[in-house]
C-alpha cells in the first residue's frame, strides 16, 4: 500500500487494496461544458449563488456539508483557467485571497484549502474548503474526503456561514444573495402576558375546581428558516482588499 495510507490524516482503516490501473484511452471524453451551449454554470441564474459581481460568482452546495463551509468560485464568462485574459487572471488572484479571508473569518475555521481539479467541468471553478479549528486529523490532502464522511453541520449554522461570507465579500462590491435565517423572537412583555393568561386558564377563579391540564407534548414543529429577497449591491470589487480578518460527491 502507498505510504499515505499510514498517515494519521488518512480517513480509512482496515484491509484495503489498490485498484488495477486501466489502460489509457486513445481519446479522452469531453467534459461537461466543452460545448458552451450545454454549460450548467452559464445557464444558472444569479439567485443560485450566494454572491455575484459583473465578472465572478460564488456558490455553495445545495445542502449543509460536513465542513463549516464548502464554496466554489466561478468566472461569469465561459473560460477555463488557461483561457483567462490577463485582467481576469489578475482578478482571480485577488478573488482567491478575498474569498479565503472571508471563509477564514468564520468562527471555528482554522485553514481554508483551495483546489482546482477541472476534469469534470470546462467552466472555471475553484473549490474552497474550510478546515475546522482543532481538527488536526482533517489536515492536508484528504480534507475533501472527510467532508463526505463527517455528519452535516446544522442547517441554521450553514446558512449563517454562507450569509457571513456573502456579506464579507459585499464589503468590496458585488451583491450578497445569501442572508441568515430569520429569528422568531418574542418580546419580554409578550412572554409575561402569555404567562399570566396561562395562569388564569389553569387555576381559574378562587374557590373554583379546575381539572389539571393534559401533559404537553415534548415535540413541536420548528418554523422553516426563510431567506429574504437579495439586497442590491454596489457592482464589482475594487482592487485593494480590506485588511480585516475576522450533496456530496467527487470534486470535479
Please, could you describe this protein's structure?
Strands 4-5-3-2-1-6 form a six-stranded antiparallel sheet. About 25% of the residues lie in helices and about 10% in strands. The radius of gyration is 25 Å and the shape is globular. It is an alpha+beta fold and about 250 residues long.
Q: What keyword list fits this structure?
A:
globular; alpha+beta; 252 residues; six-stranded antiparallel beta sheet; 6 strands
Brief summary:
The chain is built from five helices and six strands. β1 (51-52) and β2 form a beta hairpin. It has helices spanning 40-43, 86-104, 143-149, 155-170, 188-203; strands at residues 51-52, 56-60, 70-75, 109-115, 125-132, 175-176.
Oligomer: single chain
Helix/strand-derived category reads alpha+beta
Overall 3D geometry?
globular
Distance between the termini: 25 Å
Percent of residues in helical segments? Answer: 10-25%
Amino acid at each position: 500500500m502507498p505510504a499515505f495510507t499510514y498517515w494519521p490524516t488518512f480517513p480509512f482503516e482496515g484491509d484495503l487494496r489498490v485498484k488495477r490501473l486501466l489502460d489509457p484511452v486513445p481519446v479522452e471524453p469531453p467534459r461537461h461544458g466543452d460545448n458552451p451551449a450545454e454549460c450548467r454554470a452559464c445557464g444558472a441564474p444569479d439567485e443560485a449563488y450566494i454572491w455575484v459581481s459583473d465578472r465572478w460568482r460564488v456558490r455553495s452546495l445545495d445542502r449543509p456539508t460536513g465542513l463549516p463551509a464548502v464554496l466554489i468560485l466561478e468566472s461569469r464568462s465561459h473560460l477555463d483557467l488557461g483561457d483567462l485574459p490577463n485582467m481576469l487572471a489578475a482578478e482571480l488572484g485577488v478573488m482567491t485571497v478575498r474569498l479565503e479571508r472571508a471563509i477564514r473569518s468564520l468562527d471555528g475555521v482554522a485553514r481554508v484549502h483551495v483546489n482546482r481539479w477541472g476534469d469534470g467541468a470546462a467552466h472555471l471553478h475553484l473549490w474552497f474548503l474550510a478546515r475546522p479549528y482543532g481538527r488536526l486529523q482533517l489536515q492536508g490532502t484528504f480534507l475533501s474526503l472527510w467532508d463526505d464522511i463527517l455528519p452535516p453541520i446544522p442547517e441554521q449554522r450553514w446558512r449563517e456561514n454562507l450569509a457571513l461570507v456573502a456579506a464579507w465579500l459585499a464589503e468590496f462590491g458585488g451583491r450578497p444573495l445569501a442572508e441568515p435565517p430569520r429569528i422568531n423572537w418574542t418580546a419580554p412583555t409578550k412572554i409575561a402576558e402569555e404567562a399570566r393568561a396561562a395562569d388564569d386558564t389553569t387555576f381559574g377563579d378562587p374557590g373554583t375546581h379546575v381539572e389539571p391540564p393534559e401533559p404537553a407534548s415534548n415535540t413541536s414543529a420548528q418554523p422553516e428558516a426563510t431567506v429574504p429577497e437579495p439586497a442590491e449591491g454596489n457592482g464589482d470589487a475594487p482592487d485593494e482588499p480590506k485588511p480585516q480578518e475576522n450533496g456530496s460527491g467527487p470534486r470535479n
